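Q: Could you fold this chain for me?
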Amino acid sequence: MNTKVVIVDDSAVMRQMIAQIVGSQPDMTVAATAEDPYDAREKIKSLSPDVVLLDIEMPRMDGLTFLEKIMRLRPMPVVMVSTLTVAGGEATLKALELGAVDFVTKPSAQVARTIEDFAADVVSKVRIAASAAASIASRAHGAAVSAAPPALHKGMQPVLGVNARGSVVAIGASTGGIEAITTVLGGLPANVPPVVIVQHLPQPFTRLFAARLDGQYALRVKEAEHGDALKAGWAYIAPGNRHLTIGQGTGGFIARLDDEPPVNSHRPSVDRLFDSVAHVAAGRAVGVILSGMGADGAAGLRRMRDAGAATIGQDEASCVVYGMPRAAYIAGAVEREVSLNAVAGEAVTRLLDMDRAKARR
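A: Sure. Below is the predicted structure, expressed as structure tokens.
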């Protein structure tokens, strides 16, 4: 398959650079370049590209506004091109929530990366986005995901009560994970056991993601810090470029961060988190694998299941990219596969099962 790409950026230099990167690939074609969304709109209509590379910061109409219009009127795979600043990071997270498949960060004074590294990132993300086309089309037509369940906003009584003592929920995700994690956390009650999360994101995106989620739902959210005592009603997101694992403290589980080498090319790694949960929490845990490219988390989730944990995988129809859940399913790691909107309820059900089993002992 030859992937047709439209590049939208107000910088002529950036348009030329990205066009050279895309055009040098044997499986990609630059269908068109555009200096702003008004220019891009007609080219997208006439050329029907497979992927759009869209700058966030542009005059006349910003990338977020244009992305919202694309996803409402003509859903297709979009990769955002952003700057690694606080404002750029917040806009990027909003873009991922709106339906962008992924993002790449521009080389700049704030980003220590080579042009070769940027080029490899662009090529990889375009290929991932192209692979998500069928999922985006089916979701746009309502075939994959129904309306998200109502969030349990701060101050509301939880729908389900959970005895949180001694249990933990571990979640792993990558491409498509921003939307997926947001949906899952929105469906969890205020007294859920501590939730530990690895989402493949660099800094400062993990910190901004945690801050964006905190206060929106019944539970609190923060970027994990080394030594955090993991508390019920809280979710802890692994910092970018640091592994998150859990340990056993005197009063319960604690968060541990380290700078060990990447696992499955990732730091933080879902496998590292799941391995620690299998070792420390065993049958007192629920493991969840969500949308993402690759196989990170499959082996760790299998070890969690073998240790007695309940394990849940997001189904193919509701994934942006079914890679990680598929790898886990093939590995025999997934006990129950459900749609994204059912993940939170399934997790709570399994926690209640553990609570009842503990009460019978």
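A (continued): Residues 143-150, 152-163 have pLDDT under 50 and may be disordered.
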